[in-house]
Write a structure and sequence with these properties.
InterPro entries: DUF806. This is DUF806 family protein. The protein contains 3 helices and 6 strands, in the order H-E-H-E-E-H-E-E-E. By secondary structure, the protein is an alpha+beta fold. It has a single domain, classed as Phage tail protein-like (STM4215-like, 2-Layer Sandwich). Strands 1, 2, 3, 4, 5 and 6 form a 6-stranded mixed beta sheet that branches. A hairpin with a 2-residue loop joins strand 2 and strand 3. It is elongated, with a radius of gyration of 16 Å.
């Protein structure tokens, strides 16, 4: 299966290539068991949210609106610059034509005690038929 065009894969590559200081793990679709209890590291989980096909004409759709959910589980270490990590993520994705659909308030994961930030980023791709 070719997964290179999936929005989660592309978002993961973009995030990896950015090498943001403070992000230790980037996980696609699921957090592996060995990472689940790692509260001393910052982990980003990327999952697909929606894919809407729009702008129909001549029995074809012209646009594909794709959304990806980012869950950032911040390390419980005190030296993590949460604001810097968030601003860098926002800046990188906005510069690559992704839009912020939703930015949720911070919450605390009840299991790991990590601060969590959730974003929904979306983009529109034009189909070339």
């Amino acid at each position: 299966m070719n997964t290179t065009r999936l929005p989660v894969v592309e978002a993961g590559e973009l995030l990896r290539n950015a090498s943001i200081d403070g992000i230790d793990n980037i996980c696609l679709y699921r957090v592996p068991p060995e990472t689940q209890d790692a509260s001393d590291s910052t982990t980003v989980l990327l999952t697909e949210v929606t894919e809407d096909l729009t702008n129909y004409g001549s029995d074809k759709f012209q646009d594909r609106n794709q959304a990806v959910e980012f869950q950032i589980f911040f390390s419980t270490k005190e030296n993590v610059d949460i604001d810097s990590i968030e601003r860098q993520v926002e800046s990188i994705f906005l510069s690559k034509k992704w839009r912020i659909r939703l930015s949720r308030a911070h919450t605390v994961d009840p299991t790991t005690e990590q601060l969590v930030k959730i974003y929904y980023f979306e983009r529109t791709e034009r189909n070339d038929f």
